[in-house]
Structure formats: structure tokens, C-alpha cells
């Protein structure tokens, strides 16, 4: 089991105070126990309430009924105002090499130390029960339980953000959430209020490009990058600071699904990402990410054509490479969703010595919000005592009391200085690990304004767009056409077209075409002027310089890892009369490479092979859908092939897999099944072995190279290039 593996690998000293063991002391297991009330009274009858006679009225005296119903009535807490829908897992982090040249953070200086982590992934806009596959930003929040206290890296799967100043956050969220009069649409940005806001916030242009790209539709949480977004600071023991951007790089590569596929998955399995994470960990296929850092010496603060404090900008990896400094492995699922995933409270302000903030105005605002929100969500100031939130190091201070206090503080003093208790708890000197804020010099006027260095709102949006492969560009065009197509107001659509024209005229033109509109001739100056503001608009005007970098490879998923099929889900379509060898040889080879293989047949139960062997069926064509798989294989066998050929659901399965650009393989004995699809006649006339890897379709002999090529194809994830030239109805 996953749990055992992770525990076994730990040194005994580590086991004593790590998070798993700390949590273990709170775990309640009722196996073999009598049922009791919350006060320990054994319950004799949990089936009937106390009544006046067996048909009589229920008595108010029934304290067992009252306790049960009262608890039930209060079982829900407010969902998070953003990031309500999430899934989490436990794991560990280890740094590769001592980073003390840059930071004194102990967990980054000791390659021998294994730091427990708890990671929660989320969507932003949807409610707790919404689909995992919404087009949305994904939260990527990591709590490191370090020996110097908790460090929370509360990031997203996109490296920039919509706004530059925290004061706009409530507006952004009000705009994207369901509209207030009718609470529609759920978990979607494709509506008037969102685009009304965005079209008047040119600073969101860069983030909008990310959100309209396939990054907003991850194939799996395990296949997403993570970013700290803001520029933070590293500080070493000499007090020397440098700027740092944090990255998470998934070892499985960065992969996404298609928008049409995402919409289907939302119906077929709205828990798709949650299930994927859970299943992978249960199967021992532990998800892994490398922690990356981009370090900028303080002296280079003004070396860039953007401001390091501006959260709508990234540092292109061409300018500052990402150093991979450690690895995180998620190896244990939570025991209880509510107690861990729901009650975990992240806070961007939880830092450790060696890590510090910058004056990024978005980060500064977040520093207030994260504690404040827990007061209402978790019901008071003692949420740090909830097991999942407790640090693994002792907590000692003069804070006391409050709702649901659990610590029994001994002694008379809850103030300092005190003589009665020898001034305990004591303050720690910096040399003793006491946190000292970075001594940044600030000499400024108090002013409500934005730095001019934040005004280039378009060049990195363009850099992102220009760095995409052609299929990725098409997806962005389609996403914008879809989203703005759902907007009712023509004025909003047109204003957005004017914004897009600042990023890329070709893109704006294609979206305009899809919307049946023309790009309005709005100059940048007028665009700025159309934005409501106080009298000082001149102080807040977008600029649109060209930008010195034309493209950046790191921004396109086309360059990601494409050499593994580990944990990929493969469907094998079969029916009675399947050729056992044709099925098993491919199945076994896929499993040997770490893939998950399901046999899908017209009905559940078993199928009987040509050789009269029983083969158990994992899903039926009714319970399964191609959108839940990465690839599909059709084995040979006369009767099986004849059944599938005549089975509309099987043909639809294949057509849909083709539409979503997945790898498709068939034994040559099953060619007939492929011939019944829409896509088969769309394949190029010169289609043969060499074109296989371009098209992602292979028909061959299961005993020869078919399996090897199929494995290679699945590793390539998707064949986006075939999408547009070979559109099919499915
Ligand atoms: Fe958050 N954000 N945020 N955010 N955020 C919350 O905290 C907020 C921002 C992020 O899995 C809330 O406990 C403000 C950027 C994640 O539990 C709340 C601003 C980034 C999560 C809050 C931002 C994030 C949250 C809601 C602008 C990426 C989920 C519940 C100033 C770097 C954490 C909660 C989890 C959650 C406020 C902007 C990431 C209300 C005011 C930028 C991953 O406190």
C-alpha cells in the first residue's frame, strides 16, 4: 500500500516528529468499537427515536436524537470564496543541494532532510461541487511542515495573474463568479460580467492569454506546472538578499485535454482530476515535481524591461534559467476529506527565515486576506490548532482562548515581559532562528498610485501567444471565440476585440470573424480613456512596447516531456470472440510500461475469447467514454470485430478519440472496425508507416512492431496537428 511505502522509506528520527505521525494521534478508527454519543455514552438503539408509544410523538427528551441531528445541522462550513473545489495529498520534499549561498531556509540547505508536505490543487471560480474540468486557473498550494515552522507556497498553475493590485481582487472575483441575479453560469468565465471587467482591465491581457490556452484544461493535476507567481526574496545568513520566482516542474510533463473533451468529461466524470490524483497515489504511481527557482541578484532589480514586482509579468526562462533544486513526491491520500483537504488553511504569509516578501502590491494584499478568511471559514482564531494546520515544531506564545481552543496552557502568565515565568516564552535571536524581516530601505511618499514600470500590459501577452505552436494558437482563438460568443453584449465583445488587437491583430481578426464583427478602430489612448477612473487617468495608461524577446520555448506545451506512458489510461475495445493473443500481448506491454488498461465491451461481466478463454470486462460502452481515456486499441478476432463494427457506441468511441487527437491502434485483423469510422476516409492517401507518428493511428500486426509504436504514440500525448485538417463530426 502507498502508505506503507512512504513510511518505510523514512529514517527513524524523521518518523518521530513528521506530519504523518503527528496526524496519526488524531485519527479515530471505530472498528470493533461500540457506538457512543459524543460524550462517550454507549448507544443501545440508533434506529429508533424515543417516542410516546410505538406510533406516538417523538419526545424532546431524546438527547441522542437531538445530539445527532444538531451535529448534522452544523456539518457544513462556508466554502472557500475562491478555490472552493479542491483535492489534496500528503508527500515529502527534499532539496538536491545545499542552497545556503542564497537562502538560510533550513529545509533548503540540508539535502538529507525530508520535509513533509500537504498539497491542495483547486479550481478558482466554481463551487465545491463543480466540475474539475472547468476552463479555469488551477490553485497549487503547498504546505511545507519544516523544522522552522510552516512555509506555505500558495501558487497557481499559471505564472502570472489578472491584476496588479490587491484592491481589484474582489472586483475580479465578483465578475467571474456566477452573475448575482440568477447565479449563472457555474464555474465558467464565459459570461458578460467577466468579459465586461476584463475588457476594461488591459493589465489582465497576459493572464487572459494563459487562461484561454490549454493550460486552463489540465489532463491531470499531476501534469501541471506550478508557480509562486510573485517575486519573493531569498535571504542568506549574511543578510544578503536576492529575488526569487518559484516553479514546480512535473516529471510527467505538462499536458492538457481539448475543450470539447473537457466539456464532455464534466458530464461523464466531474471528479476526473480528483479521481486521477487519488487513483495514482493508491496505485503507488506517486506524482512528482521538481522545485525550480529563478534567482535574480538584488543588484539586477532594474535590469529587465518589466518590473519584478509586477505580478502580470514572468521572467522568461531565456533571461533567467530555472534551476531545479529539489523534488516533491506525493505519496499518501488524506484519511478524511473534510478534516484535511477542507480544513487546511494556507497562507502566503507563512514563511520561514531565509524567505521573505517583496513589495508586489498583489502579494501585499494577500498577506492580509488569508488569515482573515479563515476566521469565518474555520470559525475563529484557533484554526492553527486543527490537526492538518499544526506545525511539526512546538508552538508557544501568549495568545489565548477563543472559540474551540484546544491547547491547555499551563501557568499564570499570558503576557510578556513577565517576571513570574522568567519571561517565557522567550524571543529568539536571529542566530537562534528568530525571524527578522529583510531590512529593505523604504523612502517614499504615501500615495495611491501605480508605478509607471507596470504599464506595459501587452508585450508579454504577445510573447506568450507568439511562443505557442500552431495548434495551441488555434485553441486560444477558439477559446476566445467560444467565451466571447457566450457574451450577450456586443459592446463588450467589441471592446475585447480592441484589446486583443493590441496583442495580435491576426488573433483579433480571427475572433472577430467568429463573432461576425469587425475589430473596432480604437486606439490605445482611447482604450485607456474608455476605462473609468478617478480624474487621474493619465497616471494609469497602458503602453504597448514591442518587447525584445520574440518567443520563449518554455511557454509552449509542445516542448514538454513526451516520453512516458506511466499512469496513462488506455481503452481496449473488445467483444465475445476477441483474439486472446491480440488483446493480451498489447495489454501486457502497456501495463509493463506503467499504463492503466481497461477492457471495454458492449456489456459488463466477462467476454469469451476465440480461444474460449474468459476475460473480465472493466467497463461497458455504457459506463465508459472515450474522453476518460488517453488512447484506444482494437484487437483482432472475427466475432469481436463484427460486433464492434455494428455497435454504434464503439464506432462513436473511436471517432471521438480521433476528434480529440488521441493515439489509436488496431490489430490488422480489426481493420474493418476502423473502416467503419468517419475518420478513416479522412486519412491522407499516402498514409503508411512513416506518417503514423504524425497522425497517431496505427494498424498492424500485434506480434510485430505495433505495440512499440503504439507506446511511443501514447507518450506523445496528443496529435494536435491533425485536428484542423481532419475535422470530423463526433
Ligand atoms: Fe488567493 N485566496 N488571493 N491567490 N489563493 C484564497 O484563501 C486572495 C491569489 C490561491 O487550497 C483564499 O483560504 C487575494 C494569487 C490558492 O486552500 C483567500 C488575492 C494566487 C488558494 C484568497 C489572491 C492565489 C487561494 C480563499 C489578491 C497565486 C487556495 C480561501 C490579492 C499566486 C488555497 C483561502 C487552498 C485561496 C485571497 C490572489 C492562489 C480569500 C485577496 C495571485 C492556490 O484568502
Automatic annotation (TrEMBL):
This is Catalase. Its cofactor is heme. It is an enzyme of class 1 (oxidoreductase). It catalyses: 2 H2O2 = O2 + 2 H2O. Decomposes hydrogen peroxide into water and oxygen; serves to protect cells from the toxic effects of hydrogen peroxide. The active site is at residues 83, 156. One of its GO terms (biological process) is hydrogen peroxide catabolic process. Belongs to the catalase family. HPII subfamily. Pfam families: Catalase, Catalase-rel, Catalase_C. Residues 36-424 form the Catalase core domain. One of its GO terms (molecular function) is catalase activity. The keyword Oxidoreductase applies. Keywords: Heme, Hydrogen peroxide, Iron, Metal-binding, Oxidoreductase, Peroxidase. Its EC number is 1.11.1.6. It comes from the Bacteria.
Amino acid at each position: 500500500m502507498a502508505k506503507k511505502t512512504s513510511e518505510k522509506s523514512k529514517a527513524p528520527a524523521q518518523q518521530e516528529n513528521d506530519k504523518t505521525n503527528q496526524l496519526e494521534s488524531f485519527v479515530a478508527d471505530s472498528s470493533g468499537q461500540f457506538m457512543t454519543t459524543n460524550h462517550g455514552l454507549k448507544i443501545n438503539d440508533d434506529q429508533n427515536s424515543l417516542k410516546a408509544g410505538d406510533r406516538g410523538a417523538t419526545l424532546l427528551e431524546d438527547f441522542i436524537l437531538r445530539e445527532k441531528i444538531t451535529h448534522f445541522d452544523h456539518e457544513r462550513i462556508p466554502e472557500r470564496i475562491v478555490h472552493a473545489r479542491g483535492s489534496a495529498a500528503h508527500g515529502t520534499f527534499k532539496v538536491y543541494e545545499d542552497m545556503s549561498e542564497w537562502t538560510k531556509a533550513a529545509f533548503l540547505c540540508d539535502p538529507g532532510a525530508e520535509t513533509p508536505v500537504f498539497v491542495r490543487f483547486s479550481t478558482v471560480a466554481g463551487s465545491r461541487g463543480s466540475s474539475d474540468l472547468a476552463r479555469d486557473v488551477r490553485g497549487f498550494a503547498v504546505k511545507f511542515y519544516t523544522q522552522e515552522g510552516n512555509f506555505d507556497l500558495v501558487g497557481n498553475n499559471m505564472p502570472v495573474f489578472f491584476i496588479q493590485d490587491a484592491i481589484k481582487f474582489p472586483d475580479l472575483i465578483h465578475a467571474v463568479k456566477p452573475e448575482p441575479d440568477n447565479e449563472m453560469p457555474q464555474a465558467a468565465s464565459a459570461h458578460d460580467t467577466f468579459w465586461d471587467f476584463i475588457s476594461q482591465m488591459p493589465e489582465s491581457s497576459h493572464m487572459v492569454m494563459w487562461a484561454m490556452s490549454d493550460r486552463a484544461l489540465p489532463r491531470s493535476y499531476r501534469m501541471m506546472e506550478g508557480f509562486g507567481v510573485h517575486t519573493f526574496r531569498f535571504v542568506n545568513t549574511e543578510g544578503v538578499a536576492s529575488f526569487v520566482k518559484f516553479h514546480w516542474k512535473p516529471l510527467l510533463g505538462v499536458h492538457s485535454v481539448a475543450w470539447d473533451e473537457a466539456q464532455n468529461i464534466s458530464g461523464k466524470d466531474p471528479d476526473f482530476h480528483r479521481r486521477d490524483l487519488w487513483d495514482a497515489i493508491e496505485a503507488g504511481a506517486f506524482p512528482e515535481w521538481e522545485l525550480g527557482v529563478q534567482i535574480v541578484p538584488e543588484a539586477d532589480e532594474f535590469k529587465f524591461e518589466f518590473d519584478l514586482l509586477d505580478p502580470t509579468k514572468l521572467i522568461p526562462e531565456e533571461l533567467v534559467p530555472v534551476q531545479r533544486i529539489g523534488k516533491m513526491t506525493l505519496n499518501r491520500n488524506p484519511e478524511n476529506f473534510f478534516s484535511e483537504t477542507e480544513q487546511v488553511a494556507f497562507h502566503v504569509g507563512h514563511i520561514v527565515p531565509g524567505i521573505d516578501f517583496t513589495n508586489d502590491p498583489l502579494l501585499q494584499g494577500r498577506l492580509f486576506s488569508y488569515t482573515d478568511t479563515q476566521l469565518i471559514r474555520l470559525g475563529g482564531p484557533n484554526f492553527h490548532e486543527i490537526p492538518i494546520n499544526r506545525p511539526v515544531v512546538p508552538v508557544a506564545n501568549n495568545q489565548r482562548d477563543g472559540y474551540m481552543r484546544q491547547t491547555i496552557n499551563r501557568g499564570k502568565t499570558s503576557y510578556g515581559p513577565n517576571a513570574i515565568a522568567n519571561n517565557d516564552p522567550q524571543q529568539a535571536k536571529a542566530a537562534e532562528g528568530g525571524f527578522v524581516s529583510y531590512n529593505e530601505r523604504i523612502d517614499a511618499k504615501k500615495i495611491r498610485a501605480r508605478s509607471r514600470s507596470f504599464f506595459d500590459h501587452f508585450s508579454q501577452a504577445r510573447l506568450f501567444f507568439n511562443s505557442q505552436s500552431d495548434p495551441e494558437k488555434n485553441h486560444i482563438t477558439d477559446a476566445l471565440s467560444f467565451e466571447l460568443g457566450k457574451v450577450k453584449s456586443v459592446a463588450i465583445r467589441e471592446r475585447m476585440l480592441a484589446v486583443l488587437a493590441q496583442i495580435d491583430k491576426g488573433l483579433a481578426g480571427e475572433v472577430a470573424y467568429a463573432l461576425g464583427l469587425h475589430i473596432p478602430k480604437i486606439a490605445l489612448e482611447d482604450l485607456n480613456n474608455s476605462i473609468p477612473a478617478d480624474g487621474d487617468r493619465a497616471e494609469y495608461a497602458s503602453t504597448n512596447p514591442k518587447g525584445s524577446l520574440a518567443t520563449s520555448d518554455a511557454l509552449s506545451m509542445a516542448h514538454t516531456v513526451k516520453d512516458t506512458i506511466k499512469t496513462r489510461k488506455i481503452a481496449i475495445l473488445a467483444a465475445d470472440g476477441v483474439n486472446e493473443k491480440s488483446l493480451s500481448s498489447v495489454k501486457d506491454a502497456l501495463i509493463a510500461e506503467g499504463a492503466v488498461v481497461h477492457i471495454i465491451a458492449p456489456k459488463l461481466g466477462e467476454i469469451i475469447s476465440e480461444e474460449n478463454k474468459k476475460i473480465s470486462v472493466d467497463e461497458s460502452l455504457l459506463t465508459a467514454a472515450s474522453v476518460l481515456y488517453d488512447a484506444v486499441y482494437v484487437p483482432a478476432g472475427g466475432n469481436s470485430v463484427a460486433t464492434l463494427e455494428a455497435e454504434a457506441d464503439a464506432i462513436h468511441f473511436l471517432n471521438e478519440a480521433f476528434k480529440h487527437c488521441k493515439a489509436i491502434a488496431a490489430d490488422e485483423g480489426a481493420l474493418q472496425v476502423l473502416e467503419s469510422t468517419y475518420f478513416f476516409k479522412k486519412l491522407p492517401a499516402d498514409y503508411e508507416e512513416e506518417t503514423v507518428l504524425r497522425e497517431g493511428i496505427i494498424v498492424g500486426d500485434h506480434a510485430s512492431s505495433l505495440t512499440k509504436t503504439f507506446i511511443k504514440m501514447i507518450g506523445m500525448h496528443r496529435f494536435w496537428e491533425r485536428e484542423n485538417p481532419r475535422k470530423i463530426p463526433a
